[in-house]
Each structure stands twice: as structure tokens, then as C-alpha cells.
Design brief:
It is a single chain. By secondary structure, the chain is α/β, with parallel strands linked by helices. The protein has 4 domains: 1-55 and 155-187, no CATH class; 56-150, Nucleic acid-binding proteins (OB fold (Dihydrolipoamide Acetyltransferase, E2P)); 259-448, Rossmann fold, CATH 3.40.50; 459-647, P-loop containing nucleotide triphosphate hydrolases (Rossmann fold). Helices cover 35% and strands 17% of the residues. A hairpin with a 5-residue loop joins strand 2 and strand 3. The longest helix has 33 residues, at 217-249.
Length: 731
């Protein structure tokens, strides 16, 4: 039975009927569903259960078989926790199942005692055995039943939903079943039937029925798979369409290299390229000369030499009589790139400049005029490069460093003229493959995961106790006595690079003389609240203690750009033994003589960020060390730090970090909106993503996506992603 069609508040599309007007709801329950963002019939039909309760193989105790996977359902009537002779904790629970009892036993899982409450109705699943005259499950899987789950009649599989206070699970099931029974026949299926057969997917109506009224777990899982696959498929189709539109619609300068150009560029570098760098150069040179706009992602592990590849690509562009630009996310990183490039090109005739927000009005005006006229051939900068008043004369290549810090679509800003420049996106933060396929799936990819010859992997150690820390500081002083340098990193407080500098800022360099009340006042010193307990406090402590008498400086995000640059120059030139810092030194800082990285409260950082930080040391011929100071005992924190001790490869680190933290944190935002997916989870659905990507790119590349049968699917893709990805509505 459908909602009355003559009601004045109802839309013309029944699937958009407000939930208030369907069976088993009404105004009060509609208000509760609103809390769950369930407003229409369509919302209910596509409300994904959090899981399902499988009662299909529940047996009575007298029906159990030894060693066979099966389940029992009952009420907890007794529980116990004791320590065995071997020192392990054993938890046991007695389950009343009708007229008989079974026992569940867990070894070394003391928390189970708290989770198993008296009179709870649960399902134990496992392979039982006979012990002391009754059936016993060793470490069974436990499913906690809601009150209404126990009165399930003949239903074998019960979907379970996220709820809100005031809404019971049995009520939610009645609501979704009513929506399915009355409206599922109206759902249009956008995927052609022959493709459903080819990809082994349920038709949409059948999938929604399987989701909310499954006859078996296999049917429930098939319904889930259909919705997840379609979600991932539509996104990957959008990515494939954007890739195709770029290749079809953009004209790009043809920038050919030659043996002469290649040899002249390589002579600028004081080292031989690695095999990985040579492959990257080959990929990029091919793209630049192809006549099609390059859109390439260069992923390089920490210290693998991506900056050298960027310089190579920019010089090929300049040799082809075009301009090149390199955009970095922060002024510090832009300045580091500028110093590296300026040093490499000190003997060349390449006309170059740095464009950041710190230029005076006159300097900025002069630089913009030189960019517009073509006088400047190479420009390094921050987002100042994509401001409206920046006009390139003939931009041939835009290099975007650490692009994930800018946002998914920002690189398209460079492509708004008549002719699109080639685009090289770089990151020294290895990105998990599933994130690459969603965030950067429209790009060609080049990976460099080998270190330059002679560079040793950084040795990483967790330092959890005061005794070990005393020994660590002795080790550090020994390294400094040998002429090496050390970083000490504090946890970041807020977004360091976005903090405005205070009116008065700390002095840059105190050569081991800490600021304290008894000592002389240091001109310009101001301890801002954001740095309390971090850089300034640690600076005082170390200058008074472990690093007393040494040359110590500090740098953090509340200092202005000039001060940060001056301090980094002193450290780079060996005028400082130690640098106390926040994470502003995370990327782009290259001091080959720095061999020790100390990270305070290391548990407060993500794995990839820790890997980035340790990549600042061991960049020369001396062995590098990373010391993780941490008191943390939480399992997740210990697991993160242990992974860093065990893995030197950044790509392995990225996968571990992704599994632990998820895509939102890795991309720098916890909002689910960072990834435009309805149902899919990139950690859980990695394999399905790979399948959907292969299918999507195959459909687009072979032209099948342009056939009349795929029009409904294409319309859905364009409605969801057309504006976000700047997709053409035709062709």
C-alpha cells in the first residue's frame, strides 16, 4: 500500500515521499528518523544496515556436533573470571538455552567479563566440544541480541540498523519493511541487465529487498555488494570521464627533450639519478612530448629525490621556450624548494623568482609583470601562484607539491586558459592504493620507492622509559660531538602554518642561552599561549639540561617567514647543533649533516607523519636515527610506533596507517565528505574498489559507456560528480 497520492504535501515522485506519510511512521517517528538523516522513502530504501544477525544455524544444545561451526542462542545466567596457574586470565560464561546449558570460555581476554552481563540474550558461534559433561565453546564469536531480536519467529537473518534514542530495533525493521513492500517496485535500475549479469550483481530492486528482508546471509551480502559496487562504480566512471575529457579536449604544448638537453640538465646535479628517477624522467619526457596534456602523480618515498625530477621536468619545459611553475602548500616549503632550485641553477641563465604572500606590494607588482611578459621562466611559490592577478605569458608546466594539502580539484586552476599546461603532482607522502584510485584516479602514476645509492635506512627506536631517555640523550651528545646535528620535534598545537605571527616573536638563535626570569631579557621574546608546553618550554628545558652548552635554535609556526628562514639557514650551515621545532620541518627540509630525529610524545602523530619526520635525517653519508619518545600504553598507539620500528618503506607505512586511521585523517580532514561516496568504505572495500575501477575504465575506454543502454547510468554519474569534477555534459 502506497501513501495517498492526493495529499497536498506529497511530491510527484513517490520515492521522495516524506517518511511521515508511510506506514508505521507518523509525525513522532518521523522526527526520530530525521535525527538519522532519513527524510524520504528513498532514504529508507537505501538505509544501509550496520550488520545482520545470522540465526540460520542456531541449534539447541542436544543438536550440537563436535568440531562443526554452529551457533546457540540463550541467556547469560552466570559468569566468572580467574587467573590460571600460567598467569593468564580466563573468563567463562554460562548460557541457558531452553532446558540445557552451554559454556563459553575466553583466555587472556579479561574485558569479556565486563561485556558479558547477566540476563543478556546472546548468540555464541564457534566449534563446540564436550567438557565436564556439557558443551563448551572456546573463544566463541558473540552477537548481542536486542530485546526484540529474541522474538524473531521463523526469521533466519535480521538486519540491524543504527538507531537513535526513542527508536527501537523492531520498530526500525517494521518501518524499512513497509517502505520496501510499498515502494521497492518503483526503483529504477540504472545498470543495464546484461552488465548486471556480466558483473554478477543483483538487480537493484532485488538487492534492496535482500538488504532489509534477507532470507539468508548470502542474500544479505549480495544486496550489500550491489549497493557498494554501484557506489564505487559511479565514482570511478566519473574519474574515467574526467581523464578522457582532458585527453580529448585540451591542447598542450609539445615539449621535446633531446640527448643534448638531457645531458645539460643532468650535469647540474652532483649525483647520478637512481633507476627509479630515470624511469620517472622517461615517463615525464614522454608525456611532455606527446601533445596531450600530462596529468601525472609522482609518488616518491622520503628521500627518494622527487625534487630533482621536478627540476628536470621544469628545465625541459624552459628549453622548449615555455614557463614552468612549482606550487607548494606552505611558505616554508616553497622557500626550501626555492633555495634548492636557486642553488642548482646558480650557474645557469634561467630567469627565476619566488612568489609568496610575504613580498612587498612593489616586489609583487614587479614579479607579476615579469611573469606576464615572459621575462621570468621559472616561478616557485605558494597558492599566491593561482591568484586572479597572476597571468603567465606561456605556462608549459605546473608542478604541484603535496597536492593532497590543497584539495582534490585545485590543480585544475592552472588549466583555465586557452592552452592547458602539463601538470605534475608530487607527494613525498606515499598514499595507500585505494586512496590513489579515488583521490588521484584520473592521473597517470609514477612511483619511486628506492633510496639513492649509499643512503642507509633510518634506524627507528621507541624510547618509553626515563632510563632509556637518559641513555638516548647521551647518545645524541656523542653524535653532536662527532659533528652531527639533531632535530627535536614537539607535537603540533593547531594548524601551525596557518597561525598568524604574534606582534612580538621569540628571538631566532640563542646559542644555548635559555630564556628565564633570572637571565637577561631577550629582545622580542613573547611566549604565546599556543606554544606553552611545546617549543619554547622544551627549548628552555633542553638548554638548561640535556643540551646545555650547545648551540640550540627553535622554529615554529607562530614565527614569521623571515625568522623561520633565517633559523633554518643557520641550521643548514652548521651554526646550530640542535633545532627544536614543531612539524613545520615535516617536508622539504634537507640538511645532510642532521642524523638524529627526536620526536616528543610520538603517539600524538600519525604514522605517515612520523615517517615524514624521520625522513629529515640520514640524508647524507652518515647513519640516521629516529628516537620516538612516548609513554603511551594504548594498544593503537603502541601498534603505530611498533610499525614504524619494523618498516622503513613508506608505502608499507601508508597502508598500515590507512588501516589504523582511515581516509579522512590521512587526507587531513575527518569529514566523510572528503570522499564523495554514499556507502563504500575504502578500508573495508579495497578489493571491490579495484573491481569497480577496472570495469569503469574499461566501459569508458571501449566506448560502451556512450551507448543508449548506459544513458541512465551516465546521467546519475554526471548528477553526482559533474560539478565536483568539472565533467562535460556531452561527448
Amino acid at each position: 500500500m502506497s501513501a495517498p497520492s492526493n495529499h497536498p504535501d506529497l511530491p510527484s515522485d513517490p520515492l521522495l515521499t516524506p517518511v511521515q506519510f508511510i506506514r508505521n511512521v507518523g509525525p513522532a517517528r518521523a522526527a526520530l528518523l530525521e535525527r538519522l538523516s532519513l527524510r524520504t522513502v528513498a532514504d529508507l530504501l537505501f538505509c544501509m544496515p550496520r550488520d545482520a544477525l545470522d540465526l540460520s544455524n542456531v541449534r539447541q544444545p542436544e543438536e550440537l556436533e563436535a568440531g562443526v561451526l554452529q551457533s546457540v542462542r540463550g541467556t547469560i545466567v552466570d559468569r566468572d573470571s580467574r587467573t590460571t596457574s600460567t598467569g593468564k586470565v580466563m573468563v567463562a560464561a554460562l548460557l541457558r538455552c531452553g532446558r540445557d546449558f552451554v559454556r563459553g570460555v575466553w583466555f587472556n581476554q579479561p574485558w569479556m567479563f565486563r561485556k558479558l552481563q547477566m540476563e543478556q540474550v546472546v548468540v555464541f558461534s564457534g566449534k563446540p566440544k564436550r567438557a565436564s559433561g556439557r558443551w563448551e565453546f572456546s573463544t566463541p564469536i558473540v552477537q548481542w541480541l536486542d530485546v526484540d531480536d529474541d522474538d524473531s519467529g521463523q526469521v533466519a537473518v535480521l538486519p540491524r540498523y543504527n538507531l537513535t534514542e526513542g527508536l527501537r530495533m523492531d520498530e526500525m525493521r517494521k518501518i524499512t519493511r513497509a517502505a520496501v513492500e510499498d515502494f521497492v517496485h518503483l526503483l529504477p535500475d540504472r545498470i543495464p541487465a546484461d552488465l548486471l549479469t556480466r558483473w554478477n550483481l543483483l538487480p537493484l530492486r532485488q538487492a534492496v529487498i535482500a538488504l532489509h528482508m534477507p532470507a539468508s546471509m548470502a542474500e544479505f551480502n549480495a544486496g550489500i555488494r550491489r549497493l557498494l559496487f554501484e557506489d564505487l562504480l559511479e565514482f570511478q566512471l566519473a574519474v574515467a570521464l574526467r581523464r578522457r575529457s582532458w585527453r580529448r579536449g585540451e591542447t598542450a604544448p609539445v615539449l621535446k627533450s633531446s640527448q643534448k638537453i638531457d645531458s645539460r640538465i643532468r650535469r647540474l646535479f652532483p649525483f647520478q639519478f637512481t633507476q627509479g628517477q630515470n624511469q620517472a624522467v622517461q615517463d615525464i619526457a614522454h608525456d611532455l612530448a606527446s601533445g596531450q596534456t600530462m596529468h601525472r602523480l609522482l609518488q616518491a618515498d622520503v628521500g627518494a629525490g622527487k625534487t630533482a625530477i621536478a627540476v628536470y621536468a621544469m628545465l625541459v619545459t624552459i628549453a622548449g621556450d615555455h614557463q614552468a611553475a612549482l606550487m607548494a602548500p606552505t611558505e616554508l616549503l616553497a622557500s626550501q624548494h626555492w633555495q634548492t632550485i636557486d642553488r642548482l641553477l646558480s650557474e645557469s641563465r634561467v630567469r627565476r623568482a619566488l612568489l609568496t604572500g610575504t613580498l612587498t606590494a612593489a616586489e609583487r607588482r614587479r614579479t607579476l609583470e615579469q611573469i606576464s611578459s615572459g621575462e621570468l621562466q621559472l616561478v616557485v611559490g605558494t597558492q599566491a601562484l593561482i591568484q586572479k592577478d597572476v597571468r603567465f605569458h606561456k605556462l608549459g608546466l605546473a608542478v604541484i607539491d603535496e597536492q593532497h594539502r590543497f584539495g582534490v580539484s585545485q590543480r585544475a586552476t592552472f588549466s583555465m586558459g586557452e592552452q592547458s599546461p602539463h601538470v605534475l603532482v608530487m607527494t613525498a607522502t606515499p598514499i595507500p592504493r585505494s586512496l590513489c584510485l579515488t583521490q588521484f584516479g584520473d592521473l597517470d602514476m609514477t612511483l619511486i620507492n628506492e633510496l639513492p645509492p649509499g643512503r642507509l635506512p633510518v634506524r627507528t627506536y621507541r624510547v618509553p622509559t626515563e632510563d632509556l631517555r637518559r641513555r638516548a640523550w647521551n647518545f645524541i651528545r656523542e653524535r653532536i660531538a662527532e659533528g652531527r646535528q639533531v632535530y627535536v620535534v614537539c607535537p603540533r598545537v593547531g594548524d601551525e602554518d596557518d597561525e598568524p605571527p604574534p606582534e612580538r616573536t621569540p628571538s631566532l638563535f640563542d646559542r644555548g642561552q635559555p630564556v628565564n626570569e633570572a637571565g637577561p631579557e631577550v629582545p622580542g621574546f613573547d611566549l604565546s599561549p599556543a606554544d606553552t608546553g611545546t617549543v619554547e618550554e622544551l627549548f628552555r628545558q633542553l638548554c638548561d639540561g640535556e643540551l646545555k652548552g650547545l648551540r640550540v635554535g627553535r622554529v615554529h609556526g607562530r614565527m614569521d617567514s623571515r625568522q623561520k628562514s633565517e633559523t633554518m639557514d643557520l641550521f643548514r650551515e652548521g651554526e646550530l647543533d640542535a633545532l627544536i621545532s614543531t612539524t613545520v620541518i615535516e617536508v622539504g627540509v634537507d640538511v645532510p649533516n642532521a642524523t638524529v630525529m627526536v620526536i616528543q610524545e610520538a603517539e600524538r602523530f600519525g604514522l605517515s607523519q612520523l615517517h615524514q619526520l624521520r625522513g629529515r635525517v640520514g640524508r647524507g653519508r652518515h647513519q640516521g636515527y629516529c628516537l620516538l619518545f612516548s609513554d603511551a600504553t594504548a594498544p593503537d598507539a603502541v601498534k603505530r610506533l611498533a610499525a614504524l620500528e619494523q618498516h622503513a618503506d613508506g608505502f608499507q607505512i601508508a597502508e598500515v596507517d590507512f588501516d589504523l586511521r582511515g581516509p579522512g585523517d590521512i587526507l587531513g580532514t575527518k569529514q566523510h565528505g572528503a570522499l564523495p561516496l554514499k556507502f563504500a568504505d575504502l578500508r573495508r572495500d579495497k578489493q571491490l574498489l579495484e573491481e569497480a575501477r577496472k570495469v569503469a575504465f574499461d566501459l569508458v575506454e571501449r566506448g560502451e559507456f556512450d551507448t543508449p543502454a548506459c544513458v541512465p547510468l551516465k546521467v546519475s554519474v554526471l548528477d553526482r560528480f559533474g560539478e565536483l569534477l568539472n565533467l562535460p555534459r556531452s561527448g
